[in-house]
Design a protein that fits this description.
The protein is mainly beta. It is built from four helices and nine strands, in the order H-E-E-E-E-E-E-H-E-E-E-H-H.
């Protein structure tokens, strides 16, 4: 089964403007965090790995406080082109609701250079291990984050935890203080109103 088969089966591209996309490689490693007002408001955290975007739904979004462990639910892989999607998914479609690009940038795999050769892990290895460690260089979020699997199965549960580095800040609340899109400067309500036809920006 192809990496994007589940993504394609869940969507009717005659109705939604989400990118159909293909599995493909591109230079660098991007990440994106999309604020998604669907049946429940949440944040979708996506990491480009080997031609697709690994994806997690994070109900409370990523924190800058190392003491806060944020629950994340692993979802289907998305095409790399999805990293640029901002708009409205029509009601009745899978994930119906408003999507906004809350943060984006590039990342580094922190486990790639740890210890001996036997201990160095690719992103694919890290996913299988259930432990991903990345350094984010985004417009809103920076620094190290650990993504740890706590339960397997069809809807695997993970925790996303901020590492204790120079960007850790228990007082900072970026989800609350920086609600705007890094792509268009709009807030979620503006995207919902302006893109109500389902046409993405």
């Amino acid at each position: 089964m192809g990496k994007l088969d589940t993504y394609h089966k869940k969507r009717d591209f005659r109705r939604t403007s989400e990118p159909r996309g293909k599995s493909k490689k591109r230079s660098g490693r991007c990440f994106v965090i999309q604020k998604h007002d669907a049946s429940h408001l949440h944040y979708d955290f996506r990491l480009e790995v080997n031609g697709t975007l690994l994806s997690w739904a994070v109900p409370k979004g990523l924190s800058t406080d190392p003491a806060e462990k944020r629950l994340a639910i692993r979802t289907e892989d998305h095409p790399v082109a999805y990293a640029d999607f901002e708009g409205v998914i029509p009601k009745g479609e899978y994930g119906g609701g408003t999507v906004m690009i809350w943060d984006r940038g590039t990342y580094k795999n922190l486990r790639a250079n740890k210890g001996s050769n036997d201990e160095r892990r690719s992103m694919e290895d890290s996913l299988k291990d259930g432990l991903i460690e990345v350094w984010l260089s985004g417009e809103k979020l920076q620094g190290g984050y650990a993504v740890k699997r706590i339960r397997g199965g069809k809807k695997a549960q993970w925790l996303i935890i901020k590492m204790n580095d120079q960007y850790a800040d228990a007082r900072r609340k970026p989800n609350r203080t920086q609600p705007e899109s890094v792509k268009t400067g709009r807030v979620l309500d503006d995207v919902a109103e302006q893109d109500s036809t389902g046409k993405s920006s």
